Amino acid sequence: MLVVVWLIFILHPLRGTYANEEGDALYALRLKLTDPQSVLQSWDVTLVNPCTWFHVTCNSDNNVTRIDLGNAGLSGQLVSELGQLKGLQYLELYQNNISGPIPEELGSLTNLLSLDLYNNNLTGPIPETLGKLSSLRFLYVKLFWHLFAFFFSYLNEEFEMLYFVKSLMIIMVTDHLFVSSQG
């Protein structure tokens, strides 16, 4: 009996750490964003899980499946920790002032259906890792390139990489809409 109580005591903190891993990842994002409209005010890492936070949707297993922060007045940068949200299906961050690169860790979100980063100030290429997302249906991105020529030298390569995502239906880059013939 003492051994059982000891095991419960020892293993309990591990369960809490795992359960809040998604909360830690989202909180890392919160720390990198400026939030003048206080839309992230409910994002409290001390809560049991992030399913009680505004703009976060979870499934019945309490895994984060959706983040809806479009048009929220946010600025700052995306964080690599977003790649830890393994059940994430929708990442909606359109119409903010988010800058910097798209983290390559987003390529580990194998359940991702929609990635909407449109109308931000993102820079750099679309990460090659996004080409591995076989569930991805919609990709909306507006990238600001320092040199116009730099953009065109990488654009063809990026579309070739994304072409292999058989499920991809719509790619929107800058102000052009490309509709895949696949699907």
TrEMBL record:
Residues 1-19 form the signal peptide. Gene3D superfamilies: Ribonuclease Inhibitor. One of its GO terms (molecular function) is kinase activity. InterPro entries: Leu-rich_rpt (IPR001611), LRR_dom_sf (IPR032675), LRR_N_plant-typ (IPR013210). The keyword Kinase applies. PANTHER family: SOMATIC EMBRYOGENESIS RECEPTOR KINASE 1 (PTHR47988). This is Brassinosteroid insensitive 1-associated receptor kinase 1.
